Amino acid sequence: MNSHYTFHRLPILLSFIIGLMLTIMPLPEVIEVFRPSWLTILVIFWAMQLPQLWNVGSAWIIGIILDVSQGTLLGQHALAMCCVAFIIVRFHLIIRVFPILQLTATVFPILVIYQFLLFWVNGVEGVNAPLITYWGPVISSTALWPVIIILLSKLRNKA
Questions:
Q1: Cβ–Cβ under 8 Å, residues 46 and 12
Q2: pTM score above 0.70
Q3: What residues have CB less than 8 Å from 107, skipping those under 6 apart?
Q4: Residue 72: how many CA atoms within 13 Å on its side-chain side?
Q5: Higher-confidence residue: 72 or 1?
Q6: CA 94, CA 116: separation in Å to the nearest integer?
Q7: Counting beta carbons within 10 angstroms of the beta carbon of residue 24, is it exposed (0 to 12), middle (13 to 18) or buried (19 or more)?
Q8: What single string gives the DSSP state of each residue in 103-123?
Protein backbone atom coordinates (compact mmCIF):
# COMPACT_ATOMS: atom_id res chain seq x y z
CA MET A 1 0.00 0.00 0.00
CA ASN A 2 1.21 3.48 -0.78
CA SER A 3 2.59 5.25 2.31
CA HIS A 4 1.27 8.62 1.05
CA TYR A 5 -2.23 7.10 0.86
CA THR A 6 -1.94 5.67 4.39
CA PHE A 7 -0.62 8.97 5.79
CA HIS A 8 -3.72 10.85 4.58
CA ARG A 9 -6.12 8.29 6.05
CA LEU A 10 -4.40 8.07 9.43
CA PRO A 11 -5.92 11.26 10.95
CA ILE A 12 -9.36 10.14 9.78
CA LEU A 13 -8.99 6.68 11.30
CA LEU A 14 -7.67 8.16 14.53
CA SER A 15 -10.66 10.50 14.72
CA PHE A 16 -13.03 7.54 14.36
CA ILE A 17 -11.15 5.57 17.04
CA ILE A 18 -11.34 8.55 19.41
CA GLY A 19 -15.03 8.97 18.52
CA LEU A 20 -15.69 5.31 19.32
CA MET A 21 -13.86 5.65 22.63
CA LEU A 22 -15.94 8.72 23.52
CA THR A 23 -19.09 6.80 22.59
CA ILE A 24 -18.21 3.80 24.77
CA MET A 25 -16.85 5.80 27.72
CA PRO A 26 -19.16 5.58 30.74
CA LEU A 27 -20.84 8.78 31.88
CA PRO A 28 -22.93 9.64 34.93
CA GLU A 29 -26.61 8.80 34.47
CA VAL A 30 -27.61 12.45 34.63
CA ILE A 31 -25.68 13.39 31.48
CA GLU A 32 -25.77 10.00 29.73
CA VAL A 33 -28.88 10.98 27.75
CA PHE A 34 -27.04 14.04 26.41
CA ARG A 35 -24.06 12.07 25.08
CA PRO A 36 -23.28 13.46 21.62
CA SER A 37 -23.48 11.17 18.62
CA TRP A 38 -19.71 11.31 18.12
CA LEU A 39 -19.49 8.84 15.26
CA THR A 40 -22.41 10.43 13.43
CA ILE A 41 -20.75 13.84 13.67
CA LEU A 42 -17.53 12.34 12.29
CA VAL A 43 -19.35 10.59 9.44
CA ILE A 44 -21.05 13.88 8.56
CA PHE A 45 -17.78 15.81 8.60
CA TRP A 46 -15.65 13.32 6.67
CA ALA A 47 -18.38 12.53 4.14
CA MET A 48 -18.74 16.25 3.52
CA GLN A 49 -15.00 16.90 3.21
CA LEU A 50 -13.85 13.70 1.47
CA PRO A 51 -16.88 12.03 -0.15
CA GLN A 52 -14.70 9.90 -2.42
CA LEU A 53 -13.09 8.19 0.63
CA TRP A 54 -15.82 8.30 3.30
CA ASN A 55 -19.19 7.56 1.79
CA VAL A 56 -22.16 5.24 2.33
CA GLY A 57 -20.02 2.09 2.47
CA SER A 58 -17.71 3.58 5.07
CA ALA A 59 -20.69 4.77 7.07
CA TRP A 60 -22.12 1.25 7.00
CA ILE A 61 -18.89 -0.17 8.44
CA ILE A 62 -18.82 2.49 11.17
CA GLY A 63 -22.49 1.75 11.93
CA ILE A 64 -21.84 -1.99 12.24
CA ILE A 65 -18.91 -1.31 14.57
CA LEU A 66 -21.20 0.94 16.65
CA ASP A 67 -23.92 -1.74 16.73
CA VAL A 68 -21.45 -4.37 17.92
CA SER A 69 -19.88 -2.08 20.54
CA GLN A 70 -23.26 -1.06 22.01
CA GLY A 71 -24.98 -4.42 21.68
CA THR A 72 -27.94 -3.02 19.72
CA LEU A 73 -29.82 -4.71 16.92
CA LEU A 74 -27.23 -5.47 14.25
CA GLY A 75 -27.67 -3.01 11.41
CA GLN A 76 -29.66 -0.40 13.32
CA HIS A 77 -26.93 2.24 13.45
CA ALA A 78 -25.57 1.05 10.10
CA LEU A 79 -28.89 1.87 8.41
CA ALA A 80 -29.08 5.29 10.05
CA MET A 81 -25.42 6.09 9.25
CA CYS A 82 -25.91 5.08 5.62
CA CYS A 83 -28.88 7.43 5.26
CA VAL A 84 -26.94 10.28 6.84
CA ALA A 85 -23.91 9.63 4.64
CA PHE A 86 -26.09 9.45 1.53
CA ILE A 87 -27.65 12.84 2.27
CA ILE A 88 -24.26 14.41 2.96
CA VAL A 89 -22.51 12.91 -0.08
CA ARG A 90 -25.42 13.85 -2.32
CA PHE A 91 -25.34 17.50 -1.25
CA HIS A 92 -21.71 17.90 -0.15
CA LEU A 93 -20.85 20.51 -2.80
CA ILE A 94 -23.66 22.73 -1.57
CA ILE A 95 -23.29 22.08 2.16
CA ARG A 96 -19.55 22.50 2.51
CA VAL A 97 -19.60 26.17 1.44
CA PHE A 98 -22.19 27.18 4.03
CA PRO A 99 -21.12 29.54 6.81
CA ILE A 100 -20.72 27.76 10.14
CA LEU A 101 -24.09 28.83 11.56
CA GLN A 102 -25.97 27.77 8.45
CA LEU A 103 -24.01 24.51 8.43
CA THR A 104 -25.00 23.94 12.06
CA ALA A 105 -28.63 24.60 11.15
CA THR A 106 -28.27 22.05 8.32
CA VAL A 107 -26.66 19.41 10.53
CA PHE A 108 -29.53 19.60 13.04
CA PRO A 109 -32.19 18.04 10.74
CA ILE A 110 -29.68 15.44 9.56
CA LEU A 111 -29.12 14.42 13.18
CA VAL A 112 -32.91 14.37 13.66
CA ILE A 113 -33.20 11.97 10.70
CA TYR A 114 -30.50 9.77 12.24
CA GLN A 115 -32.28 9.64 15.60
CA PHE A 116 -35.67 9.13 13.95
CA LEU A 117 -34.35 6.07 12.13
CA LEU A 118 -33.04 4.68 15.43
CA PHE A 119 -36.42 5.47 17.03
CA TRP A 120 -38.24 3.72 14.18
CA VAL A 121 -36.08 0.59 14.35
CA ASN A 122 -36.47 0.48 18.14
CA GLY A 123 -40.24 0.82 17.71
CA VAL A 124 -40.35 -2.06 15.26
CA GLU A 125 -38.20 -4.10 17.64
CA GLY A 126 -40.49 -3.25 20.57
CA VAL A 127 -37.97 -1.23 22.59
CA ASN A 128 -39.56 1.56 24.59
CA ALA A 129 -37.32 4.46 25.54
CA PRO A 130 -38.10 7.97 26.73
CA LEU A 131 -37.98 10.68 24.07
CA ILE A 132 -35.10 12.44 25.83
CA THR A 133 -32.84 9.54 24.83
CA TYR A 134 -33.45 10.52 21.20
CA TRP A 135 -33.52 14.33 21.56
CA GLY A 136 -30.60 14.59 23.99
CA PRO A 137 -27.92 13.47 21.49
CA VAL A 138 -29.40 15.72 18.79
CA ILE A 139 -29.21 18.79 21.02
CA SER A 140 -25.71 18.08 22.34
CA SER A 141 -24.32 17.08 18.93
CA THR A 142 -25.71 20.22 17.31
CA ALA A 143 -24.25 22.36 20.09
CA LEU A 144 -20.83 20.72 19.67
CA TRP A 145 -20.84 20.83 15.86
CA PRO A 146 -19.18 24.28 15.47
CA VAL A 147 -16.31 23.27 17.79
CA ILE A 148 -15.87 19.89 16.09
CA ILE A 149 -15.84 21.34 12.58
CA ILE A 150 -13.22 23.93 13.53
CA LEU A 151 -10.95 21.32 15.15
CA LEU A 152 -11.37 18.76 12.38
CA SER A 153 -10.86 21.37 9.66
CA LYS A 154 -7.50 22.23 11.21
CA LEU A 155 -6.66 18.52 11.33
CA ARG A 156 -7.70 18.04 7.70
CA ASN A 157 -5.61 21.00 6.56
CA LYS A 158 -2.50 19.58 8.24
CA ALA A 159 -2.94 16.16 6.61
A1: yes
A2: yes
A3: 41, 44, 141, 142, 145
A4: 20
A5: 72
A6: 24
A7: exposed
A8: HHHHHHHHHHHHHHHHHHHHH
Rounded to an integer, what distance in angstroms lies between the CA atom of residue 44 and that of residue 146? Answer: 13
pLDDT, mean over the chain: 92
Q: In angstroms, how far apart are the furthest CA atoms of the chain?
A: 48
Distance CA 159, CA 61 (A): 23
- b/e string for 94-119 if b means 16 or more Cβ within 10 A? ebeeeeeeebbebbbebbeebbebbb
Contact 118, 156 (CB under 8 A): no
- Three-point CA angle 12, 19, 140, nearest 5°: 125
Q: How far apart are the first and last CA of the chain?
A: 18
- Sign, Cα dihedral of 29, 143, 58, 60: positive
Q: Which residue has the higher pLDDT, 30 or 2?
A: 30
- Residue 152 has, within 13 A of its CA and on its CB side, a CA count of 24
Phi, psi values for residue 71, rounded to 5°: 70, 25
